[in-house]
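Q: Joint fold for the lines below.
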Amino acid sequence: MTQPQQDLQDTIAVSDYRQDFPLLQQEVNGHPLVYLDSAASAQQPASVMDAVAQYERTDHANVHRGVHSLSHRATDAYEQARDKLRAFINAESRSEIVLTSGTTESINLVAQSYCRPRIGSGDRILITHLEHHSNIVPWQLVCEQTGAELLVAPMDSRGQLVLEKLYELMTDKVKILAIGHVSNALGTIHPLREIIARAHALGIPVLVDGAQGVPHMAIDVQDLDCDFYAFSGHKMFGPTGTGVLYARECLLETMPPYQGGGDMILEVSFEGTTYNDLPYKFEAGTPNIAGVIGMGAAVDYLQSVGLANIAEHEQQLLDYMTRRLTEIDGIRLIGTAANKASIQSFMLDDIHSHDLGTILDHQGVAIRTGHHCAMPVMDYFGIPGTARASLALYNNADDVDRLVDALEQAKKLFA
Amino acid sequence: MNAQGLNIGNAQELRELYRELILDHARSPRHFGKLPHATHSAEGINPLCGDKLKLYLDVDDASNIRAACFEGSGCAISVASASLLTETIIGLSEKEAIAWFTAVTTRLTHGDPTGEFSAVDLGKLEALEGVREFPARVKCATLAWHALRSALQQRPAPVSTE
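A: Joint structure:
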């Protein structure tokens, strides 16, 4: 029995990709950095930094505006990134790729521009107990604005959605289902294809918060059959301040602009304005050009590694981390769903997560602590917060061992 | 102390932060619970880590603090600080308690090496001074103190150190 385990460990002992990430080659508080907070924000490979720097050094100008060469180059690079993102999630058309500042803006865009005009008193918006605040609060705002009611599908003690309850809540009063792909606090991967099929059978459109989905698995929005898919650049090794709203073209066509400004118009007069074509109608103002080009480079990087390879590496490493954590006396794993991405929340004895975070940081181990912008999840477990280790393609078995050693030190300090 | 077996290169700063007195007050907070006849109370919330404390005071007609209690949950630093706060302020006048608030928050935040508070004897509260090396933790140590000021000023909304 030891041989297969040894083989498993060998495959995760090294990460071939670590050298691609300059930031990881440093010491923090006198120890080589172990970065286990990629679910909060992933590090960037050098290729992303280089793409951004090259644009800033040689190609910068405003997009969609100038007749001069630089503006053409900037526009080409920006629009190429859109094409890469379209292919990355297999959207049917580039008109369906709205570039935003991140998942939060993408969800707010749908809440205000799609949902709000269609909903009123007596209608319902359905979310789940596992959502990040960014997939709760935008819907609460719509409910306040319209008198609609927010329904929350429950989860079980492992952090899995209770599907039969979710389906019971799906009625003709529900005007949209907004659901995460992967829980940021617990790592749970929801069975989206089944859920979306059930929703569509009742005519309910579905928005997927994919912020934690895109870094871990290949996304095919046509195969998922979702109506909206929102995600962020910085969770998938790109720059902050970038994101995508994928939306079916037929839905975008019916939606009013989210913001007014330059670039989203064809013609403006004081009598009225003709809006630009899709997706530009939803992209008012000068965008984050450099960031979007960096996000395009992040897509190139992810595809060069291969999302199947990433998923396999992360799953093996997650299994190893789960086993090692379980060996620690006094550990309590929070989030033990059958189908999980490489995220693990936990508590150790009665040590508060913030104290754990400080003690681990002192040993060069960066984890997230607190409520993870998912306070309802913490309330469910009756805890103020957890420590959370999240793994990416650049992590390896040694990182997990360092985490476990650091936790043992925390136990000693608080013994 | 129990931390002697630590195998961390620069464990000294950690030991400075988690002194035995701090760990003792975190494990066994003094005056923990509700105060039945509180005249003043205030909540302190640190949204970053979820610390949530409620401080209760019983202040008599002569503005003296007869009793102080707190409840809630938080990290070792915030709980220990709240516990030490209650030990410190019981028996003080409101004015004296506010003076302690100013001295403690100034010392924990800036150290105040040359200012008027540098020579103040904070007694047991000096055990909290290790937080100065941990900027992310200063607000944990000052949370209960901000709640104290808020309670004495009877501010209605919960205070936040974010």
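Q: Anything notable?
A: The mean pLDDT of chain A is 95. Chain A is about 40% helix and 15% strand.
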